[in-house]
Design a protein that fits this description.
The complex is a heterodimer. By secondary structure, chain A is mainly alpha-helical. Chain A contains 22 helices and 6 strands. Classes of the chains: A mainly alpha, B alpha+beta.
């Protein structure tokens, strides 16, 4: 029965993954999407180029037209490429940093601006100052970095509009050689070949001018694809690898995963709190299907990028989301406690939704690795270990929230609180082990790469701080300074140190040797979230205090809770009677 | 357990406190708080300053020591360590002590420095260490030195070394040179104005015999020079049109064992030339492999020519003796020595002189004769002209419509240097800005010392009134026991892009002690080790691919051993502490089941242990199917 329910859960999950069915069939623009382009150090399908370009300039994968219609990235990109409208006037460029808008004299209520508006604002003046600062090697402020980001968007826009030299034409012989645009193909190919290409491109432009829909280009795009492939079949990427990447873009496995986690979460809530027929295994099945599709997405990404998927903030957020879910499932399968899924699902969903919805902060594009991360065994060991440690603490943070909610809602259900505390403790154990191992693996890598095991680099220091923030309350438990409630609070509050080590060092401090992961943005949102959460913790603590002082809820050292009479952790653990 | 109580009751209260959790928790909290504060401070003031002020400071060291004491005492006082949890606990805590000791040793005991190298320069042995020194040499030759460590606010603490008082520091200074008329020794200096009506350009420049940097000014396509002619014969030689060097590309002379052959470069590219020695074993064979009129290394670090003009002619030769083969790069510029690379065997005993053809056009040379007269020569597309250089009268240069006028002529110029902060001068100098320190000599004279510029300071010592102090503000450095030469620097780029995929330094280590050469490649994450020194790729200059900076580091082997041992102990310790009991139980269960397999009496031999593991929340009891079924069927 269990197996059957589990299987039904999996099947339900698969059914959701499979819809819409169109995902798995070739799109009406498949030929266009899978034209290979060599850009930013790798060959990729036009679909990816379109997606990355539009996301980088516009901060979103779709563009809302004046008419209210949404235009997908492929349409916007073809529009930019064939210059189908006055792009000078289109409010297409994202600028959503208030101080910069004020400085530039732009409307602070708006989020998108046209190229012309930006050029006519004070922004170019600001930019010149920033460039001077950069040239003088003066440290850049947050405002300066934001200005440079906008400048990058503008220059990408300038580069993309009417870009005839989009490198579509393969190098004739060298697999790593530089590709060229169709107008430049005469340098490497015969007049006939080059004029064939130019003819097809010209036809595409004409057709597009007539129809204004990428679908209309399909037969010509396929023809162009064949022509390009035949020019240099050994250099041109295989159809398989191109369509794999297009599938990766279209399938959007991480989006499907969070939807499944959300369904599993609701189902698990129902299983736990509503007297229903037992759907536990069905829920586990759905959750497992979510984990499965996320794993499949990872596998695709690893194949496309040809490296471990933990090299930038985006990838690590997705990886931590995966880690939380995977750890929760394995704990759940051991304990059947339900709370692991309940704690993990919202966090995995949060991680995956954030990864999806903040393309300007978390860049999903696949870039060639910076040299320091390249050719590296330690990268693929250290980063997954340490981020799995973060995932553990995230899970403990989720459990901590459930515990605090428990104190808030039914403080007298002591057996549930004790059970939750045990669940939480076993997660913290794994977290401490993984984080300690991750820090040490990082030290070993640093020994090889930077020549020293430990050097108080901010990323190192913050990883150590995070560990200390857990070790202090864990040790405090042994002498009765921290009780069950205290551990719940610690699980929530100490996670801020993990956030700082993971995100803050790269995005807030912006200092140190881990500079290849630096970025900007998102800090206000995270600060707000952390602030609200801390208020919740404080409110719960006040309520807990008032409950304990009125003696309706007394939590003197009990089972599982070491007494304050002795300072020996090991001893206490063994001598306290079982609960 | 009772054993422990006996122990703890016997312990001295101080020892007990030192090993207690009551000390550990506040200590961990304090360390965390200090580290948090430090990282935020670091994001404001930079890494160098917090390294000095906090991480390498004495009080931080004491804090770490206290942590190590707490860890060791806590582990020692809980002896004997019985059971997996206690063993794990002891392993972890001792491991942490070892790790802290190792990390401290890494930070404090290692020698680390940067080794700047260039493909067109000889092997380097001078390691540039972190930090700066102010060194003062007394008239009697004794040298004293002091660290110049900056504080967070950019100032330096006031200190005295060798009678000099160190007062102030500026990050970005620039040295302005002025010429005054009241010099005591001969030092000709000219103030020139160069103007073109057609181009609407006008430039003013100083030329002077000293400092040597003022002897020549390069103005894009044209060069202005000042030469002092001590004798009339010298002056006449300078003013004679240069003899045409034979051959379009000049001549090359190779000398070995007192014999020389000379040949025309243009005629010999691709040819093999022979220089027969006194006997057969001295024979030298030279193959002229390549010639570049305007040599440079391209982005792939391959030699190429920028133009067909003879601006920077260079030759590649393969020089073979019966015992060895060398690859030579020979340059036309007089100040560049040939770059010699040993390809096989022993070094070849030969020297080469490359007489490059007549140098580039558009050179104006002012000649100051010993009798205080000024002459000039100009080499332009219109040919060579020379004559007396008049004051305040324009001279046609033959470069477009450029005219040159001497506006000031100081035969005995006195150099006045002033060190100014960059913000006070125009920004065009900011690229050349260097740090400087302000020092006060015993006589009360204040002077700015620029980084790397030795200077003499007056010293009114009554015993030695003529004695001068010499001071230099310079980087700390040390000499390596071997020399490292950059043979090649290879930059790989991502396909079709300018972004860099990897850079690799191909180095040669010359070891005079062992009398050997080692050829190594160094790239990111792939350092090389040589006699205990780790040599790693540090930085490079995207604008000049002939240079590469390597990080050279040595830490005693025991330090590495400490960190690695500590690492293993900690990870193993945590694992044993949390999971040892459980794993041991499973192992025993597995063994007993295996033993009982034949007898058919599968009883739980671990029944006595299992309840104990259920006791604490720390150890999740292993839940097997029988225990679980009631929970899942609610």
């Amino acid at each position: 029965m269990k197996v059957l329910k589990f299987a039904i859960g999996i099947l339900l999950g698969l059914a959701l993954i499979a819809t819409p069915l169109g995902t798995w069939q070739p799109a009406p623009t498949a030929g266009l999407q899978s034209l290979a382009v060599q850009l930013d150090g790798r060959k990729k399908p036009l679909d990816t180029v379109a997606r990355e370009t539009v996301t980088q300039i516009h901060g979103s994968t779709s563009y809302r037209l004046d008419s209210g219609d949404r235009e997908d990235y492929l349409t916007s990109f073809i529009g930019l490429w064939f210059n189908d409208r006055d792009w000078n006037q289109e409010p297409f460029i994202l600028l959503n940093y208030r101080p910069l808008k004020e400085q530039a004299g732009l409307d602070i209520e708006r989020k998108y601006f046209s190229f012309r508006e930006l050029m006519q604002s004070n922004l170019p003046v600001t930019l010149r100052q920033v460039r001077d600062k950069q040239a003088a090697e003066v440290d850049l402020s947050r405002d300066d970095r934001e200005a440079l980001t906008v400048a990058d968007r503008m220059s990408l826009m300038l580069e993309t509009v009417a870009r005839d030299e989009l490198p579509l034409v393969p190098h004739p012989s060298d697999i790593k050689g530089k590709w060229m645009g169709i107008p430049q193909s005469l340098d490497s190919y015969s007049v006939d070949e080059a004029s064939d290409l130019a003819g097809t491109l010209e036809l595409m432009k004409l057709t597009y001018a007539g129809h204004r829909a990428p679908e209309a280009l399909e037969p010509l795009a396929q023809q162009l694809h064949t022509q390009l492939q035949q020019l240099s079949p050994d250099v041109y990427p295989s159809d398989r690898s191109l369509s794999r990447e297009v599938l990766f873009n279209r399938l959007h496995a991480f989006g499907k995963a969070w939807q499944l986690f959300a369904i599993a979460f609701i189902a698990m809530l129902a299983v736990t709190f509503v007297p229903l027929p037992n759907w536990y295994w069905l829920t586990i099945g759905i959750f497992t299907a979510g984990l499965g599709i996320q794993l499949y997405g990872f596998a695709l990404r690893v194949m496309v990028a040809d490296r471990p998927p933990v090299t930038n903030m985006y990838e690590s957020v997705v990886w931590v989301g995966f880690g939380i879910a995977a750890l929760a499932l394995s704990f759940e399968l051991k304990s059947r406690a339900r709370y692991y899924i309940l704690a993990a699902a919202p966090l995995s969903i949060l991680a995956l939704v954030l990864a999806d919805s903040l393309p300007a902060v978390l860049d999903a594009s696949i870039q060639p690795l910076v040299p320091v991360l390249r050719d590296n065994f330690w990268l693929s060991v250290h980063v997954p270990t340490i981020t799995l440690g973060y995932a553990c603490f995230a899970l403990a943070m989720g459990l901590g929230h459930i515990m605090l909610a428990q104190y808030w809602l039914s403080p007298n259900n002591k057996s549930r609180i004790t059970k939750l505390s045990k669940l939480n403790y076993s997660v913290l154990q794994v977290g401490v082990l993984l984080l300690a191992a991750g820090i040490i693996l990082g030290g070993i890598w640093a020994h090889f790469s930077w020549g020293r095991f430990w050097g108080w680099d901010p990323k190192e220091t913050w990883a150590a701080i995070a560990l200390l923030c857990y070790l202090a309350p864990l040790h405090g438990r042994f002498v009765g300074w921290v009780n069950t409630f205290g551990m719940a609070v610690a699980s929530v509050v100490s996670f801020n140190a993990v956030l700082m080590a993971w995100y803050g060092v790269n995005f807030v401090l912006g200092q140190g040797l881990h500079s290849y992961g630096f970025g900007s943005g998102g800090s206000a949102g995270i600060a707000a979230l952390v602030g609200v959460d801390l208020l919740f913790v404080i409110a719960t603590a006040i309520r807990y205090k008032s409950l304990t002082s009125t003696a309706t809820f007394d939590e003197s050292p009990r089972g599982g809770e070491p007494s304050s009479s002795t300072s020996d952790p090991v001893l206490v653990r063994q001598s306290t009677p079982a609960q | 357990m009772s054993g422990h109580h006996r122990h703890s009751s016997n312990q001295h209260p101080v020892i007990k406190f030192l090993g207690s959790i009551q000390l550990a928790v506040p200590l961990l909290g304090a360390i965390a708080a200090i580290l948090i504060g430090t990282t935020f401070y670091e994001s404001r003031v930079g890494s160098d300053i917090v390294q000095g002020e906090i991480y390498k400071s004495g009080w931080f060291g004491l804090l770490m020591l206290l942590l190590a004491v707490n860890l060791s005492v806590s582990a020692l006082t809980r002896f004997p360590w019985r059971g997996a949890r206690k063993i794990g606990f002891a392993l972890t805590h001792f491991g942490l002590v070892v790790l802290i000791a190792g990390s401290a040793a890494v930070i404090h005991l290692g020698v680390e420095g940067m080794l700047p190298l260039r493909t067109d320069m000889a092997a380097n042995t001078m390691l540039r260490l972190q930090g700066e020194l102010l060194e003062v040499m007394q008239p009697d030759g004794t040298i004293s030195a002091v660290d110049v460590a900056r504080l967070a606010d950019g100032t330096i603490p006031e200190r005295t070394v060798g009678g000099l008082k160190l007062l102030d520091y500026r990050d970005r200074t620039f040295s302005l040179t002025r010429f005054k008329t009241d010099g005591e020794v001969s030092n000709p200096a000219l103030h020139l104005s160069l103007a073109s009506q057609n181009m609407g350009q006008s430039v003013e420049e100083w030329l002077a015999a000293t400092p040597s940097s003022a002897q020549q000014v390069n103005l894009g396509p044209a060069t202005l020079k000042l030469v002092v002619a001590d004798t009339d014969a010298d002056r006449l030689a300078l003013m004679t049109a240069p003899a045409q060097v034979a051959g379009k590309w000049g001549t090359l002379a190779i000398a070995s064992q007192g014999k020389t052959i000379e040949f025309d470069v243009e005629q010999s590219v691709g040819q093999t030339l022979k220089l027969s020695g006194n006997d057969l074993s001295d024979n030298i064979q030279v193959n002229v492999v390549n010639f570049w009129p305007d040599f440079r290394l391209n982005s792939r670090n391959e030699p190429e020519t920028v133009s067909e003009q003879l601006r920077n002619p260079a030759l590649q030769l393969q020089v073979e003796s019966p015992t060895g083969v060398e690859r030579w790069f020979v340059f036309g510029q007089a100040n560049l020595d040939p770059v010699r690379t040993l390809v096989a065997g022993n070094a070849v005993d030969a020297t080469v002189t490359y007489q490059a053809p007549t140098p580039e056009e558009n050179v104006f040379t002012a000649i100051a004769s010993s009798d205080g007269q000024l002459y000039y020569t100009v080499n332009s597309s219109k040919g060579f002209q020379s004559g007396i250089l008049p004051l305040d009268t324009p001279v046609d240069l033959g470069w477009a419509d450029f005219q040159l006028t001497v506006t000031d002529w100081l035969p005995r110029a006195r150099i006045e240097r002033e060190v100014v902060e960059v913000s006070q001068v125009d920004n065009s100098q900011s690229a050349n800005a260097i740090p400087a320190v302000l020092v006060e000599s015993p006589s009360g004279d204040r002077q700015w010392l620029q980084w790397g510029e030795p200077q003499a300071l007056s010293n009114p010592n009554p015993d030695n009134p003529n004695g001068e102090l010499f001071a230099i503000y310079s980087p700390k450095s040390m000499e390596l026991p071997f020399a490292v030469a950059l043979e090649d620097f290879i930059v790989e780029r991502n396909e079709g892009a300018e972004s860099v995929a990897m850079w690799t330094s191909q180095i040669r280590i010359d070891d005079p002690e062992l009398g050997q050469h080692a050829f190594r490649k160094v790239w990111m994450n792939h350092p090389t080790w040589y006699r205990g020194w780790k040599i790693a790729q540090a930085s490079w200059n995207p604008g000049d691919l002939r240079q590469s900076t390597l990080q050279v580091k040595r830490e005693p082997a025991w330090v590495t051993a400490l960190t690695w041992t500590g690492s293993m102990l900690v990870v193993a310790g945590i694992g044993v502490m949390f999971y040892g009991q459980e794993l041991a139980r499973r192992y025993r269960k597995f063994v007993s089941q295996f033993r009982n397999l034949g007898s058919g009496t599968a009883e739980r031999s671990d029944a006595a242990i299992a309840p104990a593991t259920n006791q604490s929340p720390a150890q999740q009891p292993p839940l097997d199917a029988t225990e679980l079924s009631p929970q899942t069927s609610t």
